Fold this sequence. Notes:
mainly alpha, cilium
Amino acid sequence: MYNAELLSDRIAAASLERRRNREMQRQDRIFNAKVRTIGIDKEALVSQVNERKKKEQAEAESLKAYAADAVRNDKAACLLDQRQLKDERLLQGAIEDFRLNFQPRWSRREYDLSNPDKIRGQEKIQMLPGLVGEDPDSQGRLKKQQEQLREWSFQQQHELATARHQQRQEEQQYDQDRVDLDNKALQLQTIEEERRRTVALATKNFNLTKATENAEKRWKEWQQQEEDNRTDILNQLQGELLSESQEQGISVLGLPRLSPNSYKGLADEQLQHIINCQQQQIDEKRRIQAEQQQEELQQDRFRVASARTALLMERQQARINKQLRRTQDNTNAQLAEAHHEQTKYLEKVYTNIPDDSYFSQFNTSSR
């Protein structure tokens, strides 16, 4: 058997692969802590959007060029079709004229070649003089036929030469039309290239102008920023912020309030008060630590006593377990002795023990 893969199997496998890929991508997005907590990369997305726009623009230009080529090819194909139709009409007309002039009805095979006018003059048939089947005017009729054939040959040669001359003229006209079309296409291509060069030059000039404007704008912004920085530094140096006077820190609302932007430090009384508060906090912390140490010591004594009591209880339980084990061993020995005596008795009573032949008679069929 050949391992033939069905279309439904391929479609199901492709669908399963797509779901698996989507699940893996989803897991990458969910379990990636950086993307989940920080967010997406905006610069990368912007670059992707710009690349996609450039790609779409390139595709649009390619499609436009392809459409122009298709229009040019369609025009050439239309001209060729018209030329072919015209040639077919001329050929059909020439065939009809040749049939009308050189293949009349009376010149067909079913007519008498010796007398082409026989059908025309059937109503006026007369018996020839002489014997039946004689033709006294055969020489004159043969001469007329030869002259007629010569005239037909000259006429055919003239018509053939005329047709060849007309065909050469038409071919020259066709070549001239193709040359004109090529020249027109070349002219259109030259105009398109000139337009593209003009657009590229205009774009380049616009970009240069824009870059110059941006550079001037950045230069002016830098100068303005430097001027602002110098003014700010001068204001800071000449203002009250860098002075060492503690009176600058008093708020306009009164003494209890302070001004954060002009505060220069604490007074000596405030510092002494803070030092006293800190000393009180240190003493309080030491007292609390002493109490905690006393409490921990009591807890350690309680844990030691509890451990000693647990050890005594474990030893007592071990002695009890040892006694129970001895009792159980004695009971097991008595039971083993009784089982041994019972086995010996059964061996004496039951002497007919079944062998393999007895069991082989069972389960010999599937029913």
